């Protein structure tokens, strides 16, 4: 069986002097793990198009239960990310989250669009890194069935308050009158979360916050991600070490 699709290389690993294996987030088939033979040869027709963070048109063949990338044409390689160690570390975190949450064997266009937009904003420095990271975390969780319940206070259905508490374990919010143990944030942060998870996917990066609110959003989104998924991410640990 032959598959023709577009995909982003989110992981690569050498398998000998000339070959490698890659993990690809594809538009039509979700996560695919495939081999690329001769990718490291000089003049290889698949080398550049199958490097980490290359977004490419791919021809993939299935042979005895394994996938082999036989043709690849790059569309965007996000090369400028490699000039900034913190940006490339954050991109690797996005890739690890995508590998963990994106579907296998199913259409993953939303996931692919999210990471491509995030990498583009990151590469072009058009948004604060903390904003990009928070948007990516909350959006990919929402796509995967972990959308926080941020429409109104869980107890009294109050829509807004000067400050509200966010429960990172349940994703529920509470007004100041019903406040339980949670992460207390100003209303601007709750409004930002609502924008990220409820608005059109093309507009989720289109908001601004002051520095203190952005810091609060960044802490909240990361804590929620780790609490909901109940695991650590080595790429996130590395990002924080830089």
Which oligomerization state do the chains in this entry correspond to? single chain
Radius of gyration: 20 Å
Number of strands: 9
* Largest beta-sheet characterization: 5 strands, mixed, barrel
Q: What spatial order of strands do you see in the largest sheet?
A: 1-2-3-5-4
Taking the alpha carbons of the first and last residues, their distance comes to 44 Å
Helix and strand composition category? alpha+beta
List the uncertain runs.
Answer: none
Q: List SSEs in N-to-C order.
A: EEEEEHHHEEEEHHH
Indicate the proportion of strand residues: 25-35%
Helix content: 25-40%
Shape verdict:
elongated
If you average the pLDDT, what whole number results? 94
User: How many individual helices?
Assistant: 6
Would you give an account of this structure?
- Helix content is 36%, strand content 26%.
- It has 242 residues and is of the alpha+beta class.
- The strands form two sheets. A five-stranded mixed beta barrel has the order 1-2-3-5-4. The chain has a four-stranded mixed β-sheet with strand order 6-8-7-9, covered by helices on one side.
- The N and C termini lie far apart (44 Å).
Q: Helices, strands, pairings?
A:
Blueprint: E1 2-14, E2 20-26, E3 30-36, E4 55-63, E5 66-76, H1 85-101, H2 109-124, H3 129-143, E6 149-153, E7 163-166, E8 172-175, E9 183-186, H4 187-198, H5 211-229, H6 234-241
Parallel strand pairs: 3-5, 6-8
Antiparallel strand pairs: 1-2, 1-4, 2-3, 4-5, 7-8, 7-9
What attributes does this structure have?
242 residues, alpha+beta, five-stranded mixed beta barrel, four-stranded mixed sheet, 26% strand
């Amino acid at each position: 069986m032959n598959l023709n699709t577009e995909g982003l290389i989110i992981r690569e690993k050498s398998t000998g002097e000339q070959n490698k294996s890659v993990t690809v987030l594809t538009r039509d088939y979700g996560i695919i793990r495939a081999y690329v033979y001769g990718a490291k040869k000089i003049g290889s027709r698949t080398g550049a198009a199958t490097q980490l963070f290359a977004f490419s048109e791919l021809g993939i063949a299935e042979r005895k239960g394994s996938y082999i990338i036989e043709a690849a044409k790059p569309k965007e390689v996000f090369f400028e990310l490699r000039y900034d160690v913190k940006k490339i570390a954050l991109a690797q975190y996005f890739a690890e989250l995508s590998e963990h949450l994106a579907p296998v064997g199913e259409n993953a266009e939303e996931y692919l669009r999210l990471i491509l937009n995030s990498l583009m904003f990151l590469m072009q420095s058009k948004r604060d890194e903390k904003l990009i990271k928070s948007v990516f975390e909350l959006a990919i969780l929402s796509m995967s069935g972990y959308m926080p319940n941020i429409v109104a206070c869980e107890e009294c259905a109050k829509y807004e308050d000067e400050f509200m508490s966010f429960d990172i374990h349940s994703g529920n919010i509470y007004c100041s009158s019903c406040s339980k143990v949670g992460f207390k944030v100003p209303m601007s942060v709750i409004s930002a979360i609502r924008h990220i998870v409820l608005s059109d996917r093309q507009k989720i990066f289109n908001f601004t916050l002051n520095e203190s609110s952005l810091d609060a959003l960044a802490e909240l989104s990361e804590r929620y991600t780790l609490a909901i998924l109940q695991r650590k991410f080595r790429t996130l640990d590395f990002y924080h070490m830089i």
